[in-house]
Design a protein that fits this description.
Shape: globular
Oligomer: single chain
Largest sheet: 7 strands, mixed
Distance between the termini: 41 Å
Number of helices: 7
Structural class: alpha+beta
Radius of gyration: 20 Å
Mean pLDDT: 86
Helix content: 25-40%
Strand content: 25-35%
């Protein structure tokens, strides 16, 4: 289902603001789309000639509900939906322009290579990516390579349904041999409140934010997670300095890649 399209003036229009019997263009493939909907069906755009390769038409209602939630949550005038980045041939789900953040909603399978590529591409333009993984795809015992790679990069989980009910939450995991071995309890995250720390960005409500505030529950959960990590990985004792170093080395790697591409 598609909730956004381009007008003849090449401006983004939402389905709620569009007119029926008027031709618009798909933001992904550029082909003609029109509006349809009714009392028992949400207004949305459809391709006059279906194109199975178009990513916009493949987005699920859960995916769209997360986008709409972020649009309502973040400050007016600072957030853009389906933001086009022509120089890197990308269309971002949600962009918080003022904070240089890209929110990528992921409800379907994705490869580690594609996740890395998107992070690199947006970093070239000075944006950092925050991934929102839907639990229907990313909460099982089997863990994808993409989710494992995101352990060291900003990401959260969501459980939004097709009616728009749900939340964004943080959850710490321990993976080994492609299996989810341990998970902490969920904690709701407010993505409108960003904090930049030495160890990276965090948002109000996530485990890192709460632990830094010294909340008793968060400190206990953090300590329990560290103990489970040491049991699962006896060869790797938790070291805060090492973890901070690893974060900065990842960031340095992205900066070097960006510099190399410019040259």
């Amino acid at each position: 289902m598609q909730l956004f399209a381009l007008t003849i003036e090449n401006e983004v229009v939402a389905a709620n603001d569009a007119l029926k019997k008027t031709e618009y263009s798909c933001m992904e493939c550029g082909k003609p789309v029109r509006l349809r909907g009714g009392r028992h069906r949400q207004d949305h755009f459809y391709h006059l000639r279906p194109d199975p390769s178009c990513k916009q038409s493949q987005k699920s209602m859960r995916h769209l509900q997360v986008q709409l939630y972020l649009h309502r949550l973040l400050s007016d005038g600072e957030v853009a939906l389906e933001r086009r980045f022509p120089t890197i041939s990308r269309i971002a789900d949600v962009v918080w322009e003022d904070r240089k953040l890209v929110f990528e909603v992921q409800c379907s399978p994705i490869t580690q290579q594609e996740v890395e590529a998107r992070n690199r591409d947006y970093a070239l333009l000075g944006y950092q990516v925050v991934w929102l993984l839907h639990e229907r795809r990313f909460s099982g015992k089997q863990v994808s390579a993409a989710e494992q790679w995101l352990e060291d990069h900003p990401h959260y989980y969501t459980n939004f349904d097709e009616e728009g009910r749900g939340k964004i939450y943080d959850q710490l995991h321990l993976f080994r041999d492609g299996i989810r071995r341990y998970s902490t309890k969920q904690t709701t995250v407010n993505l409108s409140t960003l904090t930049d720390t030495e160890a990276g960005i965090s948002f109000q409500g996530d485990w890192r934010y709460r632990q830094q505030l010294g909340e008793q529950e968060a400190v206990e959960v953090w300590e329990l997670w560290k103990k489970e990590r040491e049991l699962l990985f006896p060869e790797k004792r938790f070291n805060l300095i090492y973890e901070v170093k690893r974060w900065y080395l990842n960031l340095l790697g992205l900066m070097l890649e960006a510099s190399a591409k410019k040259n």
